[in-house]
Design brief:
Blueprint (H helix, E strand, L loop, with lengths): L1 H10 L5 E6 L7 H15 L4 E5 L5 E6 L4 E6 L8 H12 L16 E7 L1 H4 L3 H20 L4 E3 L1 H35 L2 H25 L5 H4 L1 H27 L2 H28 L7 H30 L18 H31 L6 H6 L1
Antiparallel strand pairs: 1-5, 1-6, 2-5, 3-4
Helix pairs in contact: 2-5, 6-7, 6-9, 7-9, 7-11, 9-10, 9-11, 10-11
Length: about 375
């Protein structure tokens, strides 16, 4: 890594270069070459572009005998007005040994436009806008001349990948929210439970973006996964609280007492489960990778905030609503869940002591059959 950094310091890097290639003999016609010249100048004047190197913007070194120095000058500084003059300048440009094999392929006539993008723009959201503008200008050039342009380079690849990842993360967030909303409605049969639960999750997602801004972190592929993860983690908290709220209200019919009891009874359990989940994500903080550290910090904080918001906002919301109706509590009497409840509440608890008793019996049986005189035999071996 040290040698690589030294190499970059001495020779630079091409990670900020966007290349546009074209292979068509029509580009050397006067009208089309004028449009290529206009395209190169338009890109060169765009905000975020540091330099453009292309055939119309090619430089040569002119010898200044008076000052005894070389002066860089544009070959096409005075744009030709006829095809003969253009062919003459093109021949002069192709004879420049410094550019041979770089901008023009002498075998097939293919040429390229090399665009150097500023580093501060390359690592910001402005890269997407700049690449999109360059593509729009290139499409307009292709529509006018019939010459196809081909894009390459790390900035273009990063722009395409970033756009695809962003759209997929948004789709993942929407799908996770829809799936959890459908499950909530199927379980509780009430849109009130769905709406208030999704409001809490929405607040958590906004807080997640706020934490990224507070810590100065960028939205990466890992941090972009946090909103769907928070949706999946936050919904069970709401399910536990609402289910316990309905159970308590059915017992004594006191709404305020039911809301206070869900905090006392479910609060500690939810705190333990969310704390263990947050600790699991906090393990990434000890990694050497910066993105993993950022993911661990933000995810652990957001999971704890999910618990705090669900344990505070849900009782507040339902304290302003009327008591739950019998229809809202029908999920407590659903028969498909009764066999599963009976299985875990009766059979499992009855089988566990039985298994322990049988295990103790078999252990005593084998211990009684052990010959005490065989001890020296085993110890000797």
């Amino acid at each position: 890594m040290v040698y690589f950094r030294n190499f970059q310091r001495i020779f630079g890097e091409d990670g900020n270069v966007l290349a546009i290639g074209l292979k068509n003999d029509k580009v050397y016609q006067l009208d089309n070459f004028r449009k290529l010249h206009a395209l190169s100048q338009k890109i060169n004047q765009a905000e975020g572009v540091s330099q453009v190197l292309s055939l119309p913007l090619m430089y040569y070194l002119d010898k200044d005998t008076l000052n005894k120095q070389f002066v860089p000058r544009l070959i096409f500084e005075n744009f030709p007005q006829n095809q003969a003059r253009l062919d003459s300048l093109l021949g002069f440009a192709l004879n420049q040994r410094f550019y041979q094999g770089l901008l023009v392929n002498p075998e097939n006539g293919a040429t390229a436009i090399l665009i150097s993008i500023k580093k501060e723009v390359l690592n910001s959201s402005g890269r997407q806008t700049l690449i999109r503008d360059i593509e729009d200008w290139g499409q307009a050039f292709s529509a006018e001349t019939g010459i196809d342009l081909h894009y390459a380079g790390i900035p273009f690849v990063r722009s395409i990948v970033t756009g695809q990842v962003a759209s997929e993360l948004q789709m993942l967030l929407v799908l996770s929210a829809i799936a959890t909303a459908v499950i909530l409605f199927a379980f509780f049969g009430s849109w009130v439970a769905v709406v208030f639960s999704m409001i809490i999750i929405g607040v958590v997602v906004v807080w997640c973006v706020g934490f990224l801004g507070i810590f100065g972190y960028q939205i990466t592929i890992l941090t972009g996964l946090l909103p769907p993860i928070l949706v999946v983690i936050g919904i069970p908290n709401c399910v536990y609280l609402l289910n316990k709220y309905h159970q308590e209200y059915r017992i004594h019919g006191n709404q305020m007492k039911a809301l206070s009891r869900i905090i006392n009874k479910i609060g500690v359990v939810a705190l333990i489960t969310n704390a263990t989940t947050a600790i699991g994500f906090a393990v990434f903080i000890f990694m050497d990778h910066a993105n993993l550290k950022e993911f661990g910090i933000i995810s652990s904080l957001c999971i704890l905030c999910t618990f705090l918001l669900s344990i505070t906002l849900l009782p507040i919301f339902y304290s302003f609503l009327p008591p739950p109706s019998a229809k809202a509590m029908r999920h407590l009497d659903r028969r498909p869940l009764t066999p599963a409840h009976q299985l875990f509440s009766h059979k499992c608890f009855r089988l566990s002591p039985n298994c322990l008793w049988r295990g103790k019996y078999y252990f005593n049986f084998f211990a009684d059959r052990h010959d005490p005189n065989s001890g020296p035999f085993f110890y000797a071996r």
